[in-house]
Write a structure and sequence with these properties.
- The structure holds two protein chains of two kinds.
- By secondary structure, chain A is α+β, with helices and mostly antiparallel strands.
- Chain A is about 15% helix and about 40% strand.
- Chain A has a nine-stranded mixed β-sheet with strand order 11-13-9-8-23-21-16-19-18, with no helix packed on it. In chain A, strands 2-1-5-4-3 form a five-stranded antiparallel β-sheet.
- Chain A starts with 7 loop residues before the first strand and ends with a strand.
- Chain B contains 51 helices and 15 strands.
- Chain B is about 55% helix and about 10% strand.
- In chain B, strands 10, 11, 12, 13, 14 and 15 form a six-stranded antiparallel β-sheet that branches. Chain B has a five-stranded antiparallel β-sheet with strand order 1-2-3-7-5, with no helix packed on it.
- Chain B starts with a helix and ends with a helix.
- In chain B, helix 13 (about 235-250) packs parallel to helix 18 (about 325-340) and helix 28 (about 490-500) crosses helix 29 (about 505-520).
- By secondary structure, chain B is an alpha+beta fold.
- Among the domains of chain B are: about 5-225, Leucine-rich Repeat Variant (Alpha Horseshoe); about 255-305; about 490-615; about 735-745 and about 815-835 and about 860-870, no CATH class; about 870-1020, Sandwich (Immunoglobulin-like); about 1025-1135, TATA-Binding Protein, CATH 3.30.310.
- The chains are: A alpha+beta, B alpha+beta.
- Chains A and B meet through strand 2, strand 4, helix 2, helix 4 and strand 7 of A and helix 3, helix 5, helix 7, helix 9 and helix 11 of B.
C-alpha cells in the first residue's frame, strides 16, 4: 500500500571525503546505504558542485545542498517541492553557522547534541516547525565557552524552559522582553556588482545586487522606518517578513518592527537596463604561440568610475589552460601564486594606487609539443570599495517610534565585486 | 565535560583518559567499543540520581545515535528517565525514544503514561511536546490513545497545541490508515481554525491524508486566502500549492478567450515582442485552431468573467513574490503560471530572475522551471536575457540549464547576440558544456531560418577543432541540419567524409556514414571510397557504426551497384558472422531485400523506395517541451517523471462549479452588536473579534493596490452584492487599518485625559453588569445542555489560562493572539458607533443570540484551576463537606433535580469579577479577580481568589508575583506561584488563597512585575467568606434552635417583582453568599446553610415568603458582625 510520507524523512551529513558523519531520522530509520546512490552521483560529477541536487533512487529521492564542503543530503519519499527542501536545508546551515560561528564538520561534531536538539525543533515529522533564529534561541541557547563551563559545574542546561513565545505573538520574528543598556541599530548597505566584460573591455552584462544587513539591538518593541533618497533605483526587492509591504508600495518607505540581532532586512536588484558604472578595468595581453613552448602573460589593472573611492582588497584569479606547465611572472605589487596541479593562478593585489598601476608580467611555459590552447583564460576579479554604494543608493533617514529612548544609529556603505569576470 | 572526566577517573581506568569528550565520536573511540560492558557505564550513569550524570550519559547516547551506532540495548535504562525533572535530559530521552521506540514496542509502552500526564499539563509547551513525542512513537498499540490525544488537542485553547495536533495527524495516518475517517473529522475542525499558526500545518495534514476531499476547502477558501500572508513561510508553500489545485477545479480558465485574441496578435501586444517566431506558431497551430473553435463556442455561450474568489487568490499571493524564501516565490510563480490570465503572468519573471542569485541548488531548480516556462511564455523572460549569460565559474549543470533557457529565448532579434555568446562558450574548457552549446546552436538554427547558414558554417569550422568530442558533437548536429536542405551543402558532406579518417567517436562516425549514404548522389565519387575504407575496418568498429556501414553499403548498391556490388557483398559477409545478432539479422534482411535472387519476395521490388525515401527533417526539440503538464515547482516536474504521491493538476472545468459553496455563513457583526445592548461583556469580545478579522486582513504585505481592469471591477461589484464576509472584509480592512493605527498612537499620547474618562465609563460598564438580570433559563440547564457540558468537562481541562469562548466550538475561537491593546473604552465607543450605524437594521435572529450567550456563560464554569474536572457527577466527592451528608443529598435529589444542581453549579456561573488593576494604571497590564468559590486545596481556611491577568501591552510582562502584603493581624495570604512571562496579548489566570479571618477587611499587597509594583487590595463581600455545607432539614432546625437571641437577625422585606418565584430567591441568595440549599418541606420557605471559612462558624439563612411578595429573612450566625452584614447583602439582593 502506498502511504504518503511527505517532506523530509532523514538527513545525512556527508563530508568531502565521502563519510557520513551525522544522521538524523524523523520517521522510521532509512538505512544509510541509500547514500550509495549519492556517492555514485558524486563520483560521476567532475566537480563537487556538479552533483545534481535531486537524485532519484528506486524508493527515495535524495535532495542535497553543498555548503562549506559538507553535503546535506535529505531523504524524501514522495512528491514535495524540491525548493522547499533545498531552502530548508540552507536554513539549517544558516542556523548552525549562527550558533557555532562556523559550519564545519568539526564544529558540528563538537556540538552534536545541540545540533540534534536544533534539528529536533526545526522539523516535526519532516515538516518545518521553528526556523526563525530568534525562536530557536529561546528554545536552545547557543553554546558559548562560558556557558559550557557553567553548565558542567551547575548541571544547568542549554535548553530553554519557556515556550517560544515568539511563535504565538503577532511578530513571530522578535523575542519579547528584549533589553539593552546601549541601544543601537546598524545598517550595512552592501552592493555586489556582477559583470561580464568582453575581450575588448566593453560590458556584456552588468547588474547590481544589494542587500541591507542590519544589526539591531534595541530595547522593547521599537518600530523603525527607513527611507531612501532615491528609492526608485530599486528594481526588484525582497523583504524580511517584518517589513510592511503596503507601506513600501505606497510610500517607498521601509517600516518594520525589527527582529532582535542580526538579520537581512532587504535584498534588492538594480537591473542591467540601468547603466552600471564599472569601477575597474583590466588591460591584458595573454598569448600562446603555435609551436612555441612559451606564452606571454601581461596584466594591468586600473580604477575607473569609482567616485573617488579607492579600490581595496583586489584579488585576481584565473584558471589557466591545461597546457600550461608553469609560470614565471613578476608582480609590481602584492603576491602571486600558481598551482601547477589545478592550474589556478591567483594574484593578491591589495590596494590599487592610481598613480602606480599594478601589473603582472612574465611568461608561461607550455607542455612541449602540445598544441596551442584554444581558449584564453577568463579573469575573475574581486575587490571592495568602502563607503560607497555603486548604484548611488542612499539612506535618507531612520526613525524610531514606539519607544522613548534615543538609539544610536549607524549606516555603512560598501561595494564588492560579485561574479566579476573579464574574458580575454 | 569536567564532570564526565571526573567520573571516568573514578571508574579507575574504565575509559581512555583522552576520550572524555562525548562530541568526539565516543562510539568508535575507546569508551564504547562494541564491548557491552562499556554500556554498563552509561546504564549506571542513567540510574544515578544526579541529573548531571544522566545528562552526560544522554549526551553520549545521542552522539552515538548521530553517528548511526546502535544504542538500542540501552532502551530500558533510558526509558526510565522519561519523567526526569531536568528538561534537557527529558528532551534527549525523547530524541532517543522516537528513534528506538519502533524497535522496542513493549518497553516503549512504559513511557506512554508520562506523556498522557504531560497532555494535561497547564503549560502549553509541555502539552505540545508531549503530544509531539507521543505521536512520533510509532507503536501500533497506542493508536487509540493517539487518536484521543489528537482529538483533544485539536480543541485545545492554545493555538500552539492545536498546531501540534495538526502535525500529529499525518503521523497517525501513516501508522494506521484506517483512522482516516476520524482524522478527516479532526482536519475539518482544524481547517476552520482562524489562527495563522494552525493554518499551514492543517493544510499540510489535509494534503497528506485526504487531498481528494477538496470539498472541505470550500468554506475555508476565503479565510485561507486572507490569512495567507501572515502564515509562516513553510505553511505558505503548502497552502499555495493546495490552492492552485483547488482553483483548477473550481474556476474557469482565464485564458479561454485569449486564444482568439492570440491569432490577432493579442499575445504579442501583451508582451511587446513583435517577433514571435512562426515555427512555434506552426507547431501549435492545430492545437490553437481546436482551442479557437472551443473558445468561440464558449464565448458565444457566455463571456468570461473572472470569479471574484479567483481574483482574490491572485491578489493575495502576489505580494509573496517578494518573500525571502525561494520556495514561497516558486510556489507563487507556479500559481501564476497555472492560474493567471496570460497578461498577468509576466510579474513572476522578475522574482524568478532574482532567485538566480541564490545558492546553486536553488538556481538549478529555478532554471529548470524557467526553462519550461520560457517555452510557453517566451516574452516573459526576454527582458532578462542577459541574466542567463553564462560565467566560466558556473557549475556545469547550471551552464547547461542556462543554455537551455537562452535557446528557448532566441528569436530573430536577439539571435545575433546569443550566437556571439555561444561562440565564447564553445571555447570553454568544460567539454560537456561545449557539447551542449553545439546542440543549442543546432536548435537555434532549426528554429530560426535566417541564421541556419551562419550556424552551419560555424559548426563546420568546429569540425577542425582539436577536441574530438567537439567535432563529434558538431557532426551529429550538422547531420540534423543538413537533412533540412541537403542539396546546397555537398561541400560540407565532402568535408565530413574526409573526417572518417580521424574521428573515432562512434556516434559521429555513424552520423557521417548515414549522411553519405543518404546523400550519395551528391557525392557520387567519394561515397564508394568511403565504403571501401569502412569495409577494411569493419571488424573493429562499434556496433552502431557497423549498422551504418551496412546501411551505406545497401544504399550504394541500389544507386551505384556497378562500383560497389563486390564491396557490399564483402561487407554483408563480414556482418553475417558478426558476434552481435542485431548486425547478423540486419545483414540477412538487407541481403534479401537488395540482392535479386530467383525467389526474392515482393518487397525487393520496392527496395529503392524503402531505402531512399525522403526522410523528414528532425525537429530539434527542447527536453522541456510539454513538461508543464506536471505542476511547476514540483519534484515530478524536475524529474520529468511522476513521483509517488504526486497530485495531478486537474484541467480547467468546462463550466464553473457553484461558487456559492465558498460563501461562509454570515455570522455578522450586526448580530453581535445587537447583543451588546443586553450583555455588556460582549463588547470586548466582539470588538476583539472584529480586530482579529481586521488583523487577518491587514497583513504586513497587505496589498490594497487594486489591479485595475475589467475583471477587477466586476469582482468587486459582485463582492459587495453578495456581501460575503471575507470578500468584502478585505476591502474594508485596506482602508480601515490605517486609521486604527493612528487611533492607537494618539491614544497613548492622550493617555492621562482618557484615564479619567475611562474610569467613568468603566463604572458604567460595571453598573450595567451588576444590573444585568440573570435569565431564568440559565439556572436550569436543560438536560440536553447538561449532556453537552458533561461531555466537555470529561475532557481533561488543563490550562491555567482561561478559555472563555474557546470552549464553544461553534463560536469563533478566540485565539490568544487576538488579545490586542484595545481599551475597553475604545471598544465601547466603537460599538456604540456601530450601533448607531446599524440601529436601523432590526436584529436578525434573537433566539439564536440568546442561546449563544447562554453557552458563553456556561463555559465560565470550566475555569477551575485546581480541580480540573468537576463534572457534575463528581462534585459531591470533591467537596468533603458535601460528602458528609450524602444521604440528604440523595433526598434532595428526589425532590427535584433542579433544586440541587443550581446550588452546586450556578454560583460559579454568576461569578462576579472585580477589578484589581486597571489597564491604564497597570501600563497595559490589567488584573481582575473573582471569588471562584472552590475550596482552596492547600489550605481549607482560605478563600480562593481567582486572579486573571491580561497583558494588553505590546511587550511581555515578566515575573508577576505578590510582594509585601500589608495585612490585618491574623490574615494570611497564600501567594500564587510567580508567573514568569506573560506575553503581549495573553491572558492567564492564577488562584491565590486569602485567609480573611472572617472579616471584610481588605487584604492589601503589592503586585509586582519585573519593572513595576502596584499597590492593590482585595476586599471580600461578606458572602464570600463562607462555604456551603449540606444539612438535612432536621439538622438545620436543630442548629437554628441553638443560635437564637443575639445570634439571630430577622428582617422583613418585600421581594422585588421579578424575584417572587422560589428559583429566583434561591438564585439571588446563592449569588450573594456562598451557601448551599437545605432541603425543605414547605415551598414557602427556602433554607441555606454554610460555614465561615476561617473559623467554621455556622451560617444559616432562611427566607420565608408570604403573599404579595412580602418575605421574612432570618440569618443565624455565631458571628454577629457577619450575620448583620449578610442580612444587609441578602436583603439588597432580594429587593433590587
Amino acid at each position: 500500500m502506498q502511504l504518503p510520507a511527505k517532506m523530509i524523512h532523514s538527513l545525512f551529513l556527508v563530508n568531502s571525503s565521502g563519510d557520513i558523519f551525522l544522521e538524523k531520522h524523523w520517521k522510521s530509520v532509512v538505512s544509510r546505504s541509500v547514500c550509495d546512490y549519492f556517492f555514485e552521483a558524486q563520483e560521476r560529477a567532475s566537480e563537487p558542485e556538479n552533483v545534481p541536487p535531486v537524485i532519484p533512487t528506486p524508493h527515495h529521492y535524495l535532495i542535497s545542498v553543498l555548503r562549506h564542503r559538507i553535503y546535506f543530503v535529505a531523504v524524501i519519499q514522495s512528491e514535495v517541492p524540491p525548493l522547499f527542501v533545498i531552502e530548508f536545508l540552507h536554513r539549517v546551515v544558516d542556523t548552525f553557522q549562527d550558533y557555532f560561528g562556523v559550519c564545519t564538520e568539526a564544529a558540528i561534531k563538537d556540538n552534536v547534541v545541540v545540533v540534534y536538539e536544533l534539528l529536533e525543533e526545526m522539523l516535526d515529522n519532516g515538516f518545518p516547525l521553528a526556523t526563525e533564529s530568534n525562536i530557536l534561541k529561546e528554545l536552545i541557547k547557543p553554546p558559548t565557552i562560558l556557558r559550557t563551563v557553567v553548565n558542567t559545574i551547575t548541571g544547568s542546561t542549554n535548553v530553554g524552559e519557556q515556550l517560544p513565545t515568539g511563535q504565538l505573538s503577532v511578530v513571530p520574528w522578535r523575542r519579547t522582553g528584549v533589553k539593552y543598556t546601549n541601544n543601537e541599530a546598524y545598517f550595512d548597505v552592501v552592493e555586489e556588482i556582477d559583470a561580464i566584460i568582453d575581450k575588448s573591455g566593453s560590458t556584456i552584462t552588468a547588474e547590481i545586487q544589494g542587500v541591507i544587513d542590519a544589526c539591531v539591538k534595541l530595547t522593547g518593541m521599537p518600530d523603525l522606518t527607513l527611507s531612501f533618497m532615491n528609492p526608485r533605483l530599486l528594481d526588484d526587492v525582497s523583504f524580511h517578513p517584518c517589513v510592511r509591504f503596503k507601506r513600501w508600495e505606497a510610500e517607498r518607505i521601509l517600516s518594520f518592527i525589527p527582529p532582535d540581532g542580526n538579520f537581512r532586512l532587504l535584498s534588492y536588484h538594480v537591473s542591467c537596463q540601468n547603466l552600471v558604472a564599472i569601477p575597474v578595468y583590466v588591460k591584458h595581453n595573454i598569448t600562446f604561440r603555435e609551436g612555441s613552448s612559451q606564452g606571454r602573460f601581461e596584466l594591468t589593472l586600473g580604477p575607473k568610475q569609482t567616485m573617488g573611492k579607492g579600490l581595496e582588497a583586489v584579488l585576481i584569479s584565473s584558471q589557466l589552460p591545461r597546457g600550461v606547465l608553469n609560470t614565471n611572472l613578476n608582480p609590481s605589487q602584492g603576491t602571486y601564486n600558481f598551482d601547477p596541479v589545478t592550474k589556478l593562478l591567483s594574484w593578491d593585489v591589495g590596494k590599487i594606487n592610481p598613480q602606480k598601476l599594478p601589473s603582472l608580467k612574465g611568461s608561461m611555459s607550455l607542455q612541449a609539443g602540445a598544441s596551442k590552447p584554444d581558449e584564453n583564460p577568463t579573469i575573475n576579479i574581486q575587490f571592495k570599495i568602502q563607503q560607497s554604494a555603486l548604484s548611488g543608493l542612499k539612506v535618507n533617514r531612520l526613525d524610531m517610534y514606539g519607544e522613548k529612548y534615543k538609539p544610536f544609529k549607524g549606516i555603512k556603505y560598501m561595494t564588492k565585486a560579485g561574479k566579476f569576470q573579464v574574458r580575454t | 565535560m569536567s564532570a564526565s572526566s571526573a567520573f571516568n577517573d573514578e571508574k579507575g581506568g574504565s575509559s581512555n583518559v583522552g576520550e572524555p569528550e562525548y562530541g568526539h565520536d565516543p562510539a568508535s573511540g575507546g569508551i564504547f567499543s562494541s564491548d557491552y560492558k562499556r554500556h554498563d557505564d552509561l546504564k549506571e550513569m542513567l540510574d544515578s540520581n544526579k541529573d548531571s550524570l544522566k545528562l552526560e550519559a544522554m549526551k553520549r547516547i545521542v552522539a552515538m545515535i548521530a553517528r548511526g551506532k546502535n544504542a538500542s540495548d540501552l532502551f530500558p535504562a533510558v526509558v526510565k528517565n522519561v519523567a526526569c525533572k531536568n528538561i534537557e535530559v527529558k528532551k534527549l530521552v525523547y530524541v532517543y525514544l522516537v528513534r528506538y521506540a519502533e524497535e522496542q514496542q513493549d518497553l516503549a509502552l512504559l513511557s506512554i503514561s508520562t506523556f498522557q500526564r504531560g497532555l494535561k499539563d497547564p503549560n502549553q509547551l509541555i502539552r505540545a511536546s508531549a503530544l509531539r513525542v507521543l505521536s512520533s512513537i510509532r507503536v501500533t498499540i497506542i493508536v487509540p490513545i493517539m487518536m484521543l490525544a489528537i482529538k483533544e488537542a485539536a480543541s485545545d485553547m492554545s493555538p500552539y497545541v492545536r498546531k501540534t495536533a495538526a502535525h500529529a495527524i499525518p503521523k497517525l495516518y501513516s501508522l494506521d490508515p484506517e483512522q482516516k475517517d476520524c482524522l478527516i473529522e479532526v482536519i475539518e475542525k482544524l481547517l476552520a481554525d482562524k489562527t495563522t499558526l494552525v493554518a499551514g500545518s492543517v493544510v499540510m495534514a489535509f494534503e497528506e491524508v485526504c487531498p481528494e476531499r477538496i470539498d472541505l476547502i470550500h468554506k475555508n477558501y476565503r479565510k485561507l486566502c486572507n490569512l495567507l500572508i501572515d502564515v509562516e513561510e513553510w505553511g505558505q508553500v503548502v497552502i499555495i500549492n493546495m490552492l492552485t489545485r483547488y482553483a483548477r477545479t473550481q474556476f474557469l480558465n482565464p485564458n479561454m478567450n485569449e486564444s482568439l485574441l492570440e491569432e490577432g496578435g493579442g499575445e504579442k501586444a501583451f508582451y511587446g515582442s513583435d517577433n514571435d517566431d512562426d515555427t512555434d506558431d506552426e507547431e501549435d497551430k492545430e492545437e490553437k485552431e481546436k482551442k479557437k473553435t472551443e473558445a468561440t463556442a464558449i464565448v458565444k455561450r457566455k463571456p468570461y468573467v473572472m470569479d471574484p474568489d479567483h481574483r482574490l487568490l491572485l491578489r493575495n499571493t502576489k505580494p509573496l513574490l517578494q518573500s525571502r524564501n525561494a520556495a514561497v516565490v516558486m510556489a507563487v510563480a507556479q500559481l501564476y503560471f497555472h492560474l493567471a490570465p496570460k497578461a498577468e503572468v509576466g510579474v513572476i519573471a522578475k522574482a524568478l530572475v532574482r532567485l538566480m542569485r541564490s545558492h546553486s541548488e536553488v538556481q538549478y531548480v529555478v532554471l529548470q522551471n524557467v526553462a519550461t516556462m520560457s517555452i510557453k511564455r517566451r516574452g516573459m523572460f526576454e527582458p532578462y536575457l542577459k541574466s542567463f549569460y553564462i560565467r566560466s565559474t558556473d557549475p556545469t549543470q547550471i551552464k547547461v540549464l542556462k543554455l537551455e533557457v537562452l535557446t528557448n529565448l532566441a528569436n530573430e532579434t536577439n539571435i545575433s547576440t546569443i550566437l556571439r555568446e555561444f561562440q565564447t562558450y564553445i571555447k570553454s574548457n568544460d567539454k560537456d558544456f561545449v557539447a551542449a552549446t553545439i546542440q543549442a546552436i543546432g536548435r537555434c538554427a532549426t528554429n530560426i531560418g535566417e541564421v541556419r547558414d551562419t550556424c552551419l558554417n560555424g559548426l563546420v569550422q568546429l569540425l577542425s577543432n582539436r577536441d574530438e568530442l567537439v567535432v563529434a558533437e558538431s557532426v551529429v548536429v550538422i547531420k540534423k541540419l543538413l537533412q533540412m536542405q541537403p542539396e546546397q551543402h555537398s561541400d560540407i558532406i565532402k568535408h565530413m567524409a574526409k573526417l572518417t579518417d580521424n574521428i573515432q567517436v562512434p556516434m559521429a562516425r555513424a552520423s557521417i556514414l548515414w549522411l553519405i549514404g543518404e546523400y550519395c548522389e551528391h557525392v557520387p565519387k567519394i561515397a564508394p571510397d568511403v565504403l571501401r575504407k569502412m569495409a577494411k575496418t569493419f571488424t573493429n568498429e562499434e556496433d552502431i557504426v557497423k549498422l551504418q556501414i551496412i546501411n551505406l553499403a545497401a544504399k550504394l548498391y541500389l544507386t551505384n551497384s556497378k562500383q560497389t556490388k563486390l564491396l557490399t557483398q564483402y561487407v554483408l559477409n563480414l556482418a553475417k558472422y558478426d558476434q552481435n545478432y542485431d548486425i547478423r539479422d540486419r545483414a540477412r534482411f538487407i541481403r534479401q531485400l537488395i540482392v535479386p535472387t530467383d525467389k526474392s519476395g515482393a518487397l525487393s521490388k520496392y527496395a529503392k523506395k524503402l531505402f531512399l525515401a525522403l526522410k523528414p527533417a528532425p525537429v530539434l526539440e527542447s527536453p522541456f517541451k510539454d513538461r508543464d503538464h506536471f505542476q511547476l515547482g514540483s519534484l515530478s516536474h524536475l524529474l520529468n517523471a511522476k513521483a509517488g504521491g504526486y497530485q495531478v493538476l486537474p484541467d480547467w472545468p468546462e463550466a464553473a462549479p457553484d461558487p456559492s459553496v465558498r460563501n461562509v455563513e454570515v455570522i455578522t457583526l450586526l448580530e453581535r452588536v445587537t447583543t451588546l445592548t443586553s450583555v455588556p461583556e460582549w463588547t470586548k469580545c466582539s470588538s476583539r473579534e472584529k480586530r482579529k478579522e481586521k488583523k487577518a486582513d491587514k497583513p504586513f504585505y497587505s496589498d490594497s493596490e487594486g489591479e485595475s481592469g475589467p475583471t477587477e471591477s466586476a469582482d468587486s461589484a459582485s463582492d459587495t452584492a453578495s456581501g460575503s464576509e471575507s470578500g468584502s472584509g478585505s476591502e474594508e480592512s485596506g482602508s480601515g487599518s490605517e486609521s486604527e493605527e493612528s487611533n492607537e498612537e494618539s491614544e497613548s499620547a492622550s493617555e492621562e485625559d482618557e484615564e479619567e474618562e475611562g474610569k467613568k465609563k468603566k463604572k458604567n460598564v460595571e453598573k450595567i453588569k451588576a444590573r444585568k438580570p440573570v435569565p431564568e433559563s440559565e439556572s436550569e440547564p436543560s438536560s440536553g445542555e447538561d449532556v453537552k457540558k458533561s461531555e466537555k468537562k470529561s475532557k481533561p481541562r488543563i490550562g491555567s489560562s482561561e478559555s472563555e469562548s474557546e470552549e464553544d466550538d461553534d463560536s469563533e475561537s478566540e485565539s490568544s493572539e487576538s488579545e490586542e491593546e484595545e481599551s475597553e473604552e475604545e471598544s465601547e465607543e466603537e460599538t456604540k458607533k456601530k450601533k448607531k450605524t446599524t440601529a436601523s437594521k432590526p436584529p436578525s435572529k434573537p433566539p439564536k443570540k440568546e442561546n449563544k450567550k447562554e453557552k458563553k456563560e456556561m463555559s465560565l464554569l470550566d475555569f477551575d484551576d485546581f480541580d480540573p474536572a468537576p463534572s457534575p457527577s463528581q462534585v459531591t466527592p470533591l467537596n468533603n463537606f458535601l460528602s458528609s451528608s450524602l444521604v440528604t443529598d440523595l433526598e434532595g435529589l428526589s425532590l427535584t433535580d433542579n433544586v440541587l444542581s443550581p446550588t452546586t453549579i450556578i454560583p460559579s456561573g454568576n461569578l462576579k469579577t472585580y477589578e484589581l488593576l486597571h489597564r491604564i494604571t497597570g501600563e497595559g497590564l490589567s488584573v481582575e479577580y473573582c471569588f471562584s468559590r472552590q475550596p482552596f486545596s492547600p489550605d481549607p481556611h482560605m478563600v480562593a481568589v481567582k486572579i486573571q491577568f491580561t497583558n494588553s501591552a505590546t511587550s511581555e510582562a515578566k515575573s508577576l508575583h505578590v510582594e509585601d502584603a500589608k495585612l490585618q493581624s491574623g490574615m494570611r495570604i497564600k501567594e500564587f506561584p510567580e508567573i514568569e512571562v506573560l506575553p503581549a496579548g495573553e491572558t492567564i489566570s492564577v488562584v491565590m488563597g486569602i485567609d480573611f479571618c472572617d472579616s471584610t477587611q481588605a487584604a492589601n499587597f503589592q503586585l509586582c512585575t519585573h519593572t513595576r509594583k502596584f499597590f492593590v487590595s482585595i476586599q471580600p463581600p461578606v458572602g464570600e467568606l463562607m462555604m456551603p455545607i449540606f444539612m438535612t432539614e432536621n439538622e438545620f432546625k436543630k442548629e437554628q434552635g441553638q443560635l437564637m437571641g443575639m445570634n439571630e437577625i430577622t428582617e422583613k422585606l418585600t421581594l422585588e417583582e421579578k424575584c417572587q418565584g422560589e428559583h429566583a430567591v434561591v438564585q439571588r441568595v446563592t449569588t450573594a453568599a456562598n451557601l448551599s440549599r437545605v432541603p425543605c418541606g414547605s415551598d414557602k420557605e427556602c433554607r441555606f446553610a454554610g460555614k465561615t471559612v476561617t473559623s467554621g462558624s455556622l451560617v444559616l439563612v432562611s427566607v420565608v415568603t408570604k403573599e404579595d411578595g412580602a418575605a421574612q429573612l432570618t440569618v443565624n450566625c455565631e458571628k454577629m458582625v457577619i450575620g448583620t452584614m449578610l442580612v444587609k447583602d441578602i436583603h439588597q439582593a432580594l429587593t433590587q
